[in-house]
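Shipment paperwork, digital attachment
Item: protein structure file
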Amino acid sequence: MAIAFNMFAMTFFLIALSVTGHPEMAADVGVIQGALLAAFMAFSANARNLILASKTDIEIKEQFGFRVVLLLPLAVVVFFLSNTMVESTIVVTVMLILRRCAEWMAELHISEREKYGDMPYAFRFILFQFVSLTLLIASPLINGGQDFILALGIWAATPILQSMPFFIRMVKSSSLPSMRSFLPHLGSSWAIAISTYIFRVLIILMAGRVVGGMLISAYAIGGMLNAVYTYAIGPSQALKAKSSSNAVPDALRLTVIILLAVGFCVIISAFTLDWIDETKLFIQTIGFSFMGGGLMILAQHHRIHMLQILKISAFVPDVLSNVLLIATIPFIYFLLGVESLSALFFWSGILAYVFYALSPAITHWTDRNQDRENGYKLTRLHHHSRQAWLLFLMFIPVFFQLSGRIFNSPVMLFDAKGMLFDLPLPIAAIVCFVAIALLVNFDRVRLSVSVLFVVFTCMLLTSVIAFNLADVEQNVGKFILLMQYILPLFALVLGQSYVQPENSSYRFEAIFLYILAVVVPLQLLATLLQGHNILTPYLYVISIYQHLDYVPVIFVSGYLLALYSEFDEPSLRKVLLWLSPFMGVYVIYSDSLGAITLLFVGGTLAPFVLSKLNTSKLAIGFVFVSLLVAFIARPDSNLQGVTASIEQAGINNETEMDGRLKHWELYTKGITEDFPTFLFGHSQQPDQLEVRSAYNYYLGLIYNFGFMALIPLGSLIIFTVIKLYNKRKDPALSSSSLALAGLVLFFLLIENSFNVSLRQPYPGIIIFFIWGVLLSRLSEAGNGNLKLSKKMDVQ
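Attachment content:
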C-alpha cells in the first residue's frame, strides 16, 4: 500500500479531476504525468524488482547514486516536454515535477524497508499520503480553490518526510553506479516510459483536450488494479514466493476473471443504457480498460517472474509490445474513428499478453531440458512447419484494402490519392507481426530490437522537437509518417529469429521460389491475354500493387536467393530451371532497370560462385537464354506502351534520372537550410503535388526526421559491412550466404539510393527480413557457433 500511494497518487488526483468536472485540467495533468513517466520511468531500470531480488545492499546504493545524478536533468527535460503541450500555470507544472522527484527517491527507501519488513514505516507513509491527497482533492471545494497551490505543495513534499536519515546514510555509503549491472533494464524502462508519454500525446492530439483528458482518466480507472499489481503487489508477491514456479496463483486468476467479467458488463451497459455521447464513451472506455487490465495482470505476472526469479531482462518484449502499440494507434483512429480509442487499453493488454505469456521465448524456457531425441525433435519440426507457413503468407504478393476488399484493380499504376481506406496493403503487414509473436527468440534478436527501439526513439525525439501545438493535423500526419518508416523495420526482428530448417523445402528461399513459380507465369499469361505490351498488375482475382516500381526487384532477389542456395537440391533445381525463362521475360516486360541488372549480374556470377556444382554452367546458360528470348520477344513499342499506360492511369510518374536529380536537389536544399533542420528534420513533408517522393530513402528520412534518425540505421549498415569484410576470406561462407550478403548490400547501398523501398510495406518487410537473416548468420559465425552452410540448423 505504501508503494501504491507513492506511485499512483498522481493518478488518483487525475481521476478526481475528471469525475469532479475538471476535464481540461485532467488532460494537462495527464500529459505532465506522461512526460514524468517518460523521463523518470525511463531511468527507473526496474529498480524495485532488482532491489527486492538482491541479497545485498549494493543494488540500492548503485540505484541511489544513479538517481541523484539524474534528478535535476530529468526535471528540466520534463518541464520542457510539458510546457509545449499544456495550458496549466508554471507553478502547477513545477509542483507536479517536484512531487515525482520525491516519489522517485522515496521508491528506493520504501523498497529497502519492505525488504526488511519495516511495517511501522509503511503505516506512517500511508497516513501522510492519504491525508495530503485528501486535502489536495478537496482544495478546489474549500475557500474557492485559493488554497489549492498550498495543498499541492504539501502533497508534493510528503513522500520524503521520513527519508532524510535514509538519504544521509546513502550519501555516506554510495559510490558511482556501475551501468553494466542494470543497463539492459534501462532499455526496458525506456521503452515503457516513452511509449506511455507518446500514447497520451496521441490521444490528446486525435481526440482533443476535453475528450482526451476524459479518455486518459478512464484508462487510469480501468487499469488501476493492473498498475497496483505491476508496481506494488506483484514484486512483493514474487519476493515472498517459496518456489520458482511460473504458475498463476488462484487468487490472481480469479481477479483476472472478475476484471474481464466486470469490464464486459460495463461495456454492455454503455451500449444498452441511454447515456449522452461523452458519458457513453467514458463508460465504454472504463469497461475496455478493465478487460485490458485483466490481461495486463497476467502479462505482468510473467514479466515479474522473468525479472526476479529467472533474472532475465524484459527488454525485448517490452520494446516489441510498446512500439507496436504506438505504431498502430493512428491507423486504428483513422480506420474506426474516435470511439475506437476507447479500446486502446484493451489492445495494449492483448499485445502485452501475447509477448509475455504466449511467446515461445517464454513458454519454451522449460523445454530446453527435455529429451533431444524425442520431444525436442518434434517441437523443432513443428516450429519449422509453422515458420514455413507464416513465411509463405508473408511473401505472397496479395494486397487488401481497409475498406474490406482484396485489391484487384485493373489500373496499370494505381494511386490511392491519399485515401487510407483505398491504399493497398500487403497481408505481409499483418503476418509479419503474427510471425514475430509466434517465432521470436529473445536471445537472438537483441541487436535488431535495439536498433528498432533507438530508431523509434530518435524519430519520436525529432518529432517532439518539431512539434507545432497550433497545427494538430500536421502533428498527426508526422506521426503517421513515422509509423510508415517503423512498421517495416519489425521484419528485421523476424529475420534474426529465423531458424534454418534441415529440410530444404521449409527454407525461406524455397518458399519464395514456390510463390514465384506460380505468380510469375500467371502474371505473364494475364499480360498476354489482356493485350498489354507491359507487365499487367491484374491477375483477375488479385492485383499486385507497385508491380513496376518495387515488386520486380524483390521477385528477382527471391529467385537469385533460391538459385544460389537450393540449386544442389534435385527437386528445387527443376523448378529453378523451369522458371528461368519466365523470369527473363518477366523482367523485360516489367521494364525495371534494377530487376534486369540484378538478374543479369546474378546469372553472370552464378558459375563462379556455384563452381563446385557440375550443373552451374547449365544455370548460367538458362539465365542468358532467358534474357535473350525476352529481348527478342519484347515488342519495339514497349517503352511507348509504358508511357501510354501511365498517361491513361492519369499519373505523372516522374522516374527518369532528370526527375530524380530535381527531387534530390529539392530535398537536399531543404535538409541544409540550417543546422537544427539538418539535425531534427522538418515539421511537415514537402508539397506532395510538387514532390511525390525523395526517390532516396535516406534523403527522405533526414528531411522528415533529421540526421539523428539516420544514425542508428546507418550504424547498423556500417556494422553489417564491417562484419562482411571481416568474413570475406572465411571458407565457411556458402553460396547462400554470399548471395544473401550481396543482395542486402544491393538494397541498402544502391536500390534505396534511387527509391524508397525500405519504407514501402511489401518490399520493406522483405528487405528487412533478409537483412535480419544475414545479421543472424554473421552473429552466429562471429561467435564460432555456426558455419555458414546451407544445411546449418541453428535451433
